[in-house]
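Incident log, structure service

09:12 report received: a user says their structure output differs between two submissions of the same chain.
09:20 pulled the input from the user's history:
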Amino acid sequence: MASQPIILYQALILSALLACVGAWIIARSYRRRMQQLMRAPHAEESTAPASDAAAVSPPPPAPFSLRDNWAAGMRLTTLLIAVSCLIAVTSACIWWVLTFPGEPLPPKRVAVVALLHLWPVIPGLALMWRWSRKRLFGTLLLWCAATFVVLLWRQIELRPLQAVAAMASEIGLSLALVSLVFLGNATRAIALWLLMPAALLIWSSLMSIDIFFHMSQQQAPWLISTLKMLEGLLGGSWHVASGLLVLVALSPWVLAWWPARVLGRALGRAYSRKWLSDLLVLFTGVWAFALTDRALTVAQGAGAAAFAMYLPLLCIPAAVGLASRWRARSGRPPTLLLLRVFQQDAQARLLFDHVAERWRLSGNTVMIAGTDLADRTLDADDIFKFLDEKLAQRFIISPADIPRRIAEFDITADADGRYRVNECYCHDTTWQGALQALVRCSDVVLMDLRGFQAHNAGCLYELATIAGASRELRVVVLIDGRTDRGAAEAAVVSGRRECFTWIEASHFNANKRREVLAHLFA
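09:34 re-ran on a clean worker, output below:
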């Protein structure tokens, strides 16, 4: 490790790039496959027996309020900040011991190094609260300015350029990789789960190239004869060299592909068994990038001991595990049914980011799966089931499948205290029955009718179903200047009209988001 820091840097960068490329390809293929399955008529009827489980209304949920939701968010935010401070201090101590072996730990200098190491807390919180890129980088600039002042204050001689260089070396590469992997829609949902399999493939390529160059230096007879044969076939030494290098780099993937898939499936199972959560994996990934950069920095002098830089990551499961034991929960968590006008992807994502994500601190979210929110709801189990060509198994192909799918919903909180999003994958012929089941198991409905017109027959059916529900629901409907409100109100005229709250949301700013949340938690 000590003699190859540049190769390890290359492996880190190439793994991130390969994971991002894979994420983009998977996201596009996933949407295309989803559209095919939703439109395709089911070819066979399910053999599962019909059940009345979906027709039974659940017991009342535990009391919930906007204040409780806000308190849960503050607890989680405080926990992430506290864990980040602990990681920063621990990594600063390890870094000092590895960089200056034998020297005592000066508390003030270690504190300054810990402050320099603390920057991942900002993208960690940004990912949790779905900050915009502008807000994220603005906050990072403020942190850089404050850290710059502290660095100048703690130095004996004022060296502004030296302080800037220290900060740039600390966060430069890691921030670039974090931005690449976590700030895109598809990459945030998919790339992180592909990083470990991608690292395995990249590492096999780098090892193969290293062996190839070692054998070329040894002038292996079989290698020389192979080069001559390729030169005769391709014509020209440059084509031979480039073609052979690509072949050497990619050929190990034939062997490495199987363990990479096994690793991916293991991640999917760990997520489905609640050993992992999306937020904690994102938070751990941000810190892992930062600690990897520090490990590679000290590797030249510390050798294999540089792996100790990863020890602070153990603080995350330990702290979250303790916090989950202290978190008291009683009663059934409330369930939010999220409905929207399809083909309004941008506004659906914004609604999910700022309302549904907040709701997850208090209860479950259920909805009909669609391509518009695929990059918000994809998880590790979905990704690797899709890669195994098992996405069709998740679709409801007959009414008899609906109770089974509802029973499979994950309704318990993750270790971080947030609840998951459960979806029903439906064909065009089965979504109405699934909707009826979702209405029966929900307590609150958020329906985005911005852009709704009378020809949106699916939305009219949803409105009529909600209005005619056997149990009283709280229904919040978002409308704008394009909404045909007359058609929407006509669809609920024969049902529980008093349960509907209509909110004009042409401008979905922070004040409007707070208003929507207030009505959901009323």
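09:41 both user submissions now match this output. Likely a transient worker issue. Closing.
09:42 reviewer note: The longest helix spans residues 5-39. The longest strand covers residues 335-340.
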